[in-house]
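Structure (tokenized):
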């Protein structure tokens, strides 16, 4: 233990009014592993104790002015010195009752004069060892605390530490009625850096970002990395909104200069959500949620910007809470229904299938878009139950139609959330529902958005292979809005691309969009994908797509999403044509 460099050398204090005794003891103790301090009276001793952390004090009992027992009592009363072991030094002729008084005043041992060097050394060593063990324990605890509270990559406080600090700050501001701000940062498109340049580069970028953030804030501000590419900054003692805006602008500005990693310049930006205490909430969860909503809004507004949590945003938040709260019951009460949107072959104009779309008519809020509630069902963990219910209802309906019309020659497609896709139970349920309703899974398709590529590609491949073996076809929905690369898609069992409606709506409005659609169709057909255009609304769009070789189309031009009875009529009319 003696060669442990992190532990400071023990300090020992000898207090005696007799100089000869002082130096005699000091010279004996030269052989121990400690620094020796000397004091010739009680007052001097107390002064030294204020400045040093002693492992042991030898205290002469008989001293003029303040005797050893008085000094000991003072030390015991003081918070910082009450744990220091004291050994009284006294003449051998000392009375038994006085010795007891010494223990009562806080001494742990006695040493009799004349002092026997070997006893002095032995006793001292015991206390040095005790001191060193305590110091080592203290150090280990502080290291453990550091590990538990520090992000090992950037050295910034981690989520634990952030939460602790946040709670402390909140308690303090509640007492003093001051305001503070929470800034939540999320790097824009950081995933692309990881994907294109590897995790090592990604890690280095995260470290560089941490440094830049630190350089933008004051000492009293608290920067933390709370996960992947998410950072938080707490700004205590805010006078007004402008202060925070200045910080936020500086932060955005600091990203303007490229980050140089492995001699490569990287351009990256960040989005920032800002929430104030007490305006945005009075609890840590409330304020955090508010900053998160503002961040989400900042992403939606095109990234590389900051947004304050505000009244209107609060309305959105309250609505989300309401939807989240009502969703489980809506699922249970089967308030969520389905509609069928037909799709057609662009060459023959025949109906080829239908997309199943979820519908929720809320008793108070009216119709809620699936864009809104599916997202909430995903984050609140209800998507699985809801997804199965939708499939169950659709299969039940399809089975009824099969009884009525015989084989339908239609493909039915379901929008699938990643959570469902990655759950093996879903694969089993799909198979058993198909068995139960006598549905041929070759007639079934699933639609996935490009966001699935942000998950583990090997796992994704395994899941898709499994569906492929069941006979299910897979399509990429809203194709063109993400950044998946067509040739990479070809490595996975994916057969269909659904071109996003935003492209279709720009047909003949912008020559760039026309060129993009033509290129997508040409490339996708050469790679043997089946191509479906979404959201076609007029004849011009239809003719353009037909001319350039798109296979199928779906949109208001044919029909809006229809309830089961409407779809049945539509189907009957179509097959009679
Ligand atoms: P999506 O899968 O891309 O569905 C197409 C959306 O475009 C549907 O909106 C549809 O009503 C709308 N649409 C169809 N034709 C046209 C058109 O000609 N013009 C215009 N302007 N819009 C058209 P909807 O039903 O509101 O669904 C929105 C999104 O919600 C869907 O996008 C899908 O991502 C998601 N969604 C819907 N149902 C489900 C579901 O059961 N499960 C999951 N996971 N997601 C679902
Ligand atoms: Mg879809
Ligand atoms: Mg779509």
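Design, position by position:
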């Amino acid at each position: 233990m003696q060669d442990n460099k992190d532990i400071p050398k023990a300090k020992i204090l000898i207090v005696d009014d007799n100089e000869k005794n002082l130096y005699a003891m000091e010279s004996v103790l030269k052989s121990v592993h400690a620094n020796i301090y000397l004091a010739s009276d009680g007052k001097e001793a107390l002064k030294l104790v204020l400045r040093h952390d002693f492992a042991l004090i030898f205290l002469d009992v008989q001293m003029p002015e303040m005797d050893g027992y008085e000094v000991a009592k003072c030390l015991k009363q003081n918070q910082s010195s009450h744990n220091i072991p004291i050994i009284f030094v006294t003449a051998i002729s000392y009375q038994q009752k006085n010795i007891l008084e010494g223990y009562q005043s806080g001494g742990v041992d006695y040493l009799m004069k004349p002092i026997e060097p070997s006893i002095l050394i032995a006793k001292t060593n015991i206390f040095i060892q005790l001191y060193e063990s305590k110091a080592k324990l203290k150090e280990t605890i502080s290291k453990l605390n550091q590990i538990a509270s520090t992000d090992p990559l950037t050295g910034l406080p981690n989520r634990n530490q952030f939460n602790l600090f946040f709670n402390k700050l909140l308690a303090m501001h509640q007492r003093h009625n001051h305001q503070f701000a929470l800034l939540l940062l999320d790097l824009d498109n950081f995933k692309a850096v990881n994907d294109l340049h590897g995790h090592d580069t990604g890690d280095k970028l995260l470290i560089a970002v941490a440094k830049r953030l630190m350089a933008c804030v004051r000492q009293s501000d608290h920067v933390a990395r709370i996960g992947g590419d998410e950072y938080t900054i707490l700004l205590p003692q805010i006078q007004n909104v402008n202060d925070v805006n200045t910080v936020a602008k500086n932060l955005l500005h600091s990203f303007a200069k490229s980050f140089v990693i492995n001699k490569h310049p990287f351009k990256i930006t960040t989005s920032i959500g800002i929430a104030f205490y007490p305006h945005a909430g009075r609890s840590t969860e409330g304020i955090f949620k508010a900053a998160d909503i503002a961040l989400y809004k900042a992403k939606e507004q095109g990234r590389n910007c900051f947004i304050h949590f505000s009244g209107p945003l609060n309305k959105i938040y309250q609505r989300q809470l309401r939807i989240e709260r009502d969703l489980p019951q809506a699922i249970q009460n089967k308030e969520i229904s389905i509609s069928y949107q037909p799709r057609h072959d662009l060459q023959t104009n025949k109906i080829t299938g239908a997309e199943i779309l979820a519908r929720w008519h809320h008793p108070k809020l009216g119709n809620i878009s699936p864009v809104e509630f599916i997202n909430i069902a995903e984050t609140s963990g209800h998507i699985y139950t809801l997804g199965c219910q939708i499939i169950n209802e659709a299969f039940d309906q399809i089975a009824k139609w099969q009884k009525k019309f015989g084989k339908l020659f239609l493909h039915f497609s379901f929008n699938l959330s990643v959570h469902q896709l990655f759950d093996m139970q879903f694969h089993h349920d799909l198979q058993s529902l198909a068995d139960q309703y006598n549905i041929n899974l070759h007639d079934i398709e699933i639609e996935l958005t490009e966001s699935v590529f942000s998950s583990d590609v090997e796992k994704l491949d395994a899941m898709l292979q499994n569906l492929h073996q069941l006979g299910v076809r897979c399509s990429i929905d809203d194709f063109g809005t993400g950044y998946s690369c067509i040739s990479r898609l070809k490595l996975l069992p994916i057969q269909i691309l659904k071109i996003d409606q935003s492209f279709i709506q720009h047909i003949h409005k912008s020559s760039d969009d026309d060129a993009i659609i033509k290129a997508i169709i040409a490339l996708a057909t050469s790679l043997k994908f089946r191509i479906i255009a979404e959201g076609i609304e007029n004849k011009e769009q239809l003719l353009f797509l037909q001319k350039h070789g798109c296979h199928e189309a779906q949109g208001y031009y044919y029909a809006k999403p229809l309830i089961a009875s409407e779809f049945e009529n539509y189907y009957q009319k179509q097959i009679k044509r």
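Reviewer-requested clarification: The first helix runs from residue 19 to 28. The longest strand covers residues 351-362.
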